[in-house]
Design a protein that fits this description.
- Helix content is about 50%, strand content about 15%.
- The chain has helices at about 5, 45-55, 60-75, 80-85, 90-110, 135-145, and strands at about 10-15, 20, 40, 110-115, 130.
- A 3-stranded antiparallel β-sheet has the order 2-1-3, covered by helices on one side. A two-stranded antiparallel sheet has the order 4-5.
- The protein starts with a helix and ends with a helix.
- The structure holds zinc ion.
- Zinc ion binds near residues 16, 31 and 33.
Length: about 150
C-alpha cells in the first residue's frame, strides 16, 4: 500500500490460468479464478506472457500446416500421378484433400513423418514425407480411393 505508483506499473500473474490481474482485482494475492498464489510482474512482461499463452492464432496455423503438407506431397505433379494410378471415383480436389488428411492422421499416429527444414529453404528436397510403414500407407491410400 505504501507505493501505489509502483503497483500501477505491475500486474499479478497466475501461472495456472496463464493470465494477469490488476492489483485491485486480486487484493488477496491469490488468483480470483483458481486460487493459485499470484506472482507480481512488470506490465510489459505480463502482456507478453498473455500473448504467448493466447491461442487465437492456433486454428489459422493448423490450416497453414495442412496446406504445407498438401504442397509437399502434391508437388511436381505427384498428386496427379497418385490420382491416375489409383483412378478413384472422386474428383481430383476431393482426392487431394483426403490424402492430405490421411498423411496428417498418419503423422499424428506416428507412421508418417513430415520433414521440414529448420528454416525456409529454396531446396525443395528438404521438404518431404517419409513413411515408417509404407505398407500401411498403400493400404490406407487404397481405402481413401474407394471410399
Ligand atoms: Zn488462476
Amino acid at each position: 500500500m505504501s507505493n501505489d505508483r509502483e503497483k500501477s506499473k505491475t500486474y499479478l500473474w497466475c501461472g495456472n490460468c496463464r493470465r494477469s490481474f490488476a492489483h485491485e482485482d486480486a487484493v488477496t494475492g491469490f488468483c480470483p479464478v483458481c486460487g493459485t498464489e499470484l506472482r507480481e510482474m512488470g506490465k510489459f512482461s505480463a502482456i507478453l506472457r498473455g500473448l504467448m499463452a493466447n491461442e487465437l492464432v492456433a486454428s489459422d496455423l493448423r490450416t497453414k500446416h495442412r496446406q504445407l503438407v498438401r504442397l509437399i506431397w502434391t508437388r511436381n505433379g505427384m498428386g496427379e500421378r497418385y490420382y491416375r494410378v489409383l483412378a478413384p471415383d472422386i474428383p481430383y480436389n476431393k482426392f487431394e484433400a483426403r490424402v492430405t488428411e490421411l498423411l496428417c492422421r498418419g503423422a499424428d499416429e506416428g507412421w508418417v513423418k513430415i520433414v521440414i527444414p529448420p528454416a525456409p529453404s529454396p531446396d525443395d528436397s528438404q521438404y518431404k514425407i517419409e513413411f515408417d510403414d509404407e505398407e500401411r500407407f498403400v493400404r490406407e491410400l487404397e481405402a481413401v480411393a474407394v471410399k
